[in-house]
Amino acid sequence: MSKKQHQKTVQELETPVVDMHVNMNSVDTEPDKARPLGREYPKSRSTMPEKQLFNFAEYKAREAEKIGYSNYSYWKSVWTNFLKKKSAVFMSVIFILLFIFTFVASAIGKYDISMAPDPLNRSYIAPNAEYWFGTNAIGQDYWAQVWYATRASILLAVLVSLGQITLGVIIGLIWGYVRKLDRFFTELYNLIDNVPTIIYMTLIALMVGKTMWTMGIAMIGFGWLATARNVRNLVFMYRDREYNLASRCLGTKLHRILFRNIFPYLVSVIILRMALAIPGTIAYETTLTYLGLMDITKPSLGMLLSSARSVFPNAAYTLWFPAAIVSIITITFYLVGNAFSDACDPRNHV
Q: What structural domains does the chain harbor?
C-alpha cells in the first residue's frame, strides 16, 4: 500500500458517521440534527442522576399478581351451581316456609296443644271450620298437635344429624389418616355394627329413660358408624398424595393436614350424608315410638303416625296430615342434598 492510499484510509476511519433518515418513498441524505452524536451530546445531560433520567416504577404486589390472579371463589361457585337447580331451590323455599310456619301455627289456631274441652264428645271429629285438622282420641285440636310435632321432630332430626355427622367426620379423619389406630377403630366399628341398634336403644331407654333428648343422644352415639366408615375410605385416597407428603416433611401439624388438605375434598359427601340423615332420623324416631321406646306424652311426627295406625281408615286424616309433612321433608332433603352435593364438587365448577 502506497503512502497516499494509507492516508486516505485513515481519513475515512476518522470521518464521523452521519445518521440517515429513511422514508418509505425516498432516502434523505441530510444528517439528523435533532439527535446529536455521542461526542456532541451535552455534558449536563450525561451527568444527570438516574432519578431524573428515568421514571422508576414502584413495586405493587397487587399489580404484580394481576397476571396470575383468578376470580375463582369456591363457595361462590357452589351457590351459583346450586341456584341452577330450580327444583332444589323451590323445595328449599317450601321447607323454610314450613319450618317458620311451625312457630306461627300456634298463634293462628283456636286451641292450645293441651286443651281438651270435651274429651268424650269431641274425639275424632273430622276436619271442619272449628277444627281445621280435626281432633284426636281425647278431643285435642289436631292442628296444634301436628305443627308442634313437626317443629319438635325437625329440631330433633337436625340436631341428631349434626351430631352424627360431626362425630363421624372427626373419627373418620383420624381413622383413615393415623395408620396405628386403624385396627382399633375397625374392631370398634365391628363391635357396634354387628349388634342391632334397637337392642342398644332398648337398654338405654330402660336404664336412663324414654325422653326425646335422651334417645336423641343415643342416636348420635350409635349413628356415626356409616359416616365414619365412608370418610375413612375417602381419606385413604388422599392421604399419600404429594402435597400431603410434602406437608408431613415440612412438619405440618396433624390437625392442619386433616382439616386444610383433606377435609375440603369431603364436603360434597358430608353434605349428602347430612341431607339423608335428617329424614332417616325422623323415620327412626317413628320406629322407636312404635316400639314404645320414645316419650309419648309430647307430640312428635313419629308418635302421631304410630297412633294413627290404630284408627286407620276410620279416622284417616290422623295419618294423612303427618304423613304428608314427613313426605315433604324427605323429598326436600333428598333433592336439596343431591343438588348441593353436586354443587360442592369442584369438578363441576367451570
A: 87-348 (1.10.3720.10)
